[in-house]
């Protein structure tokens, strides 16, 4: 499977962000990609601390103009696009939702489970946490599990996806800048790849607030391709045989002694 991760700087106007998506999708199609992973929350991005509530106003349903237009862009093509938007949740907040689109269809959606209430941020003020099971989709014969940004800090979710058959984790993100935050990103992408012997295709929004640094990590934790802070695409051949070989050489999934329960806890609830 040929995989691309793309990054750009999202802005408040969804039509401008749609044009950025179109540009990266056209490049992905020209390059023969099977999978294109785009960042989290790209329907609209508001920069100021006092503007974060505006994602409620900007949110669109999955049959709204942004997803509909992006879905139509994939019609007749081979590329599966995974990208993040905000959609109305029904309680006044929004869901932070990933959509998987292919050949004009909505293949799947995943609503973010772990919200970024950390490092002084309170995503839960405006975003509703989901209580849906993890999602795995088939892309060109590879099983791809869906995660969003802060989810990467929770290894049990990645393990649940691996248990569900995932050979790759697709991770749209908008990783906020801060002391050692780029190091956290790099370490955890490699850790999730290694402990589950799977590929990780992570797309990080770039710009003044977020680090970019999109990358593709192989099942033994080696970065195969990466971007820095500028918009663009990174590429890798993410073949299933590499996953199988890694799992034969490093059978951590077979050797483990503890299972991960799929039971969801309420936010802040301890087992």
Describe this structure in words.
The chain is built from seven helices and twelve strands. It has 271 residues and is of the alpha/beta class. The strands form two sheets. It has a six-stranded mixed sheet. Strands 6-7-8-9-10-11 form a six-stranded mixed sheet, with helices on one face. Strand 6 and strand 7 form a beta hairpin. The longest helix is centred in the first third of the chain and has 17 residues, at 14-30. The chain is globular. The model has no long low-confidence stretch (mean pLDDT 96).
Quick structural summary:
It is built from 7 helices and 12 strands. It has helices at 14-30, 54-58, 65-74, 155-163, 181-196, 240-249, 252-255, and strands at residues 2-7, 35-37, 80-88, 94-102, 105-111, 136-139, 142-146, 168-173, 199-204, 215-217, 223-226, 232-237. Strands 5-4-3-2-1-12 form a 6-stranded mixed beta sheet.
């Amino acid at each position: 499977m040929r995989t691309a991760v793309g990054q750009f700087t999202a802005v408040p106007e969804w039509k401008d962000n749609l044009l950025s998506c179109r540009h990266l999708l056209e490049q992905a199609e020209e390059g023969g990609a099977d999978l294109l992973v785009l960042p989290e929350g790209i329907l609209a991005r508001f920069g100021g601390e006092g503007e974060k509530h505006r994602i409620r106003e900007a949110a669109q349903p999955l049959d709204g103009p942004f997803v509909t237009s992006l879905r139509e862009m994939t019609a007749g093509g081979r590329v599966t696009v995974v990208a993040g938007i905000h959609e109305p949740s029904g309680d006044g907040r929004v869901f932070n939702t990933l959509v998987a689109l292919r050949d004009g269809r909505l293949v799947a959606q995943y609503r973010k489970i772990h919200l970024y209430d950390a490092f002084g941020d309170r995503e839960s003020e405006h975003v509703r946490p989901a209580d849906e099971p993890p999602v795995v989709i088939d892309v060109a014969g590879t099983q791809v599990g869906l995660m969003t940004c802060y989810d990467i800090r929770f290894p049990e979710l990645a393990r649940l996806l691996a248990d569900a058959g995932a050979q790759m984790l697709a991770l749209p993100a908008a990783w906020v800048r801060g002391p050692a935050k780029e190091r956290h990103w790099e370490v955890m992408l490699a850790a999730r790849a290694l402990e589950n012997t799977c590929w990780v295709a992570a797309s990080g929004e770039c710009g003044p607030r977020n680090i970019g640094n999109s990358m593709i990590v192989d099942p033994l934790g080696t970065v195969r391709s990466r971007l820095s802070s500028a918009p663009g695409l990174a590429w890798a051949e993410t073949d299933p045989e590499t996953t199988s070989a890694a799992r034969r050489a490093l059978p951590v999934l077979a050797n483990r002694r503890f299972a991960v329960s799929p039971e969801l806890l309420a936010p802040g609830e301890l087992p």
